[in-house]
Q: What sequence folds into this?
């Protein structure tokens, strides 16, 4: 595999934080050239 790199502890911590703090929704990880460039959290609020 070319250009394989490890995920940093900071990236893992942010992903973990998003997952632990969301009740309804999704977490998306955007990757370009084998690197995480964006982490999105979309949360649904039920009324």
A:
């Amino acid at each position: 595999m070319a250009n394989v790199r490890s995920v940093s502890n900071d990236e893992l911590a942010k992903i973990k934080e998003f997952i632990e703090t969301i009740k309804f929704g999704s977490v998306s990880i955007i990757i370009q050239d084998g690197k995480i460039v964006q982490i999105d959290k979309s949360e649904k609020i039920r009324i």
Remarks:
- The mean pLDDT is 90.
- DSSP finds one helix and two strands in the chain.
